[in-house]
Amino acid sequence: MAVVYLAASQGPRGFSKLVVVKELKEEFSQDPEFSSMFVDEARLAARLNHTNIVQTYEVEEEGGHFFIVMEYLEGQPLSHTRTRLAKLGGQLRDYQVRALCDVLDGLHYAHQLADYDGTPLHVVHRDVSPHNVIVTYGGDVKLVDFGIAKAADSSSQTRTGVIKGKLAYMSPEQAFGKPVDCRADVFALGVILWEAITGRRMWKGNAEGAIAHRLSTGEIPKIDEHTPDAPPMLKAICERALAPRREDRFPTAAAMQQALEGYLAGLARKPTTRELGTLVAQAFAEERGRIASLIEEQMRGVRPAAMEASASASTSSTDLPRILAPIQSLTPHASTPVSKSGPLGAQMAASSTVRPEVGGYPLRWLILGGIALVVIGAAATTAIMAPWSQPAAPQPPPSALPDASR
Question: Where are the extended beta strands (E) located within 11-132?
Answer without folding.
Answer: 16-24, 56-62, 65-71, 75-77
